[in-house]
C-alpha cells in the first residue's frame, strides 16, 4: 500500500483525524491529476475552511484530499 492509497482510504469531515465514512460505504469523488499545491490550497480553502491546522492535515482532512508526491487531488461528492 502506498502513501497515496492510505490517504485516500478514509474521509475525515469533522477534523478529528478519523474517517467519518463506514468501511462498506460507496464513495463518489472527482479525481484530478497534475495539480499544483497552490491550486489544491485554493480549492481546499473554499470547500474545507477551517479543517486542518498544518499543510499535511489540510491534505488529508475534509472533502478535498491531496498527495503532493504525485500531484493528485480528490474531491468527495457523496457516500452511501
Descriptive account of the structure:
With 80 residues, the protein is α+β, with helices and mostly antiparallel strands. It has one domain (3-79). The chain is built from three helices and three strands. It has a three-stranded antiparallel beta sheet with strand order 1-3-2. The model is unreliable at 1-5 (pLDDT under 50).
What's this, in brief?
The chain has 80 residues and is α+β, with helices and mostly antiparallel strands. It contains 3 helices and 3 strands.
| Poorly predicted ranges | 1-5
What's the domain count? Answer: 1
- According to DSSP, the number of beta strands is 3
What share of residues is helical? 25-40%
The side-by-side strand order for the widest beta sheet comes to 1-3-2
What is the SS-derived class? Answer: alpha+beta
Distance between the termini: 25 Å
- Give the topology string: H per helix, E per strand: HEHHEE
Strand content: 15-25%
The coarse overall form would be globular
With helices defined by DSSP (H or I, 4 residues minimum), what is the helix count?
A: 3
Estimated radius of gyration: 12 Å
Average pLDDT rating? 89
Largest beta-sheet details: 3 strands, antiparallel
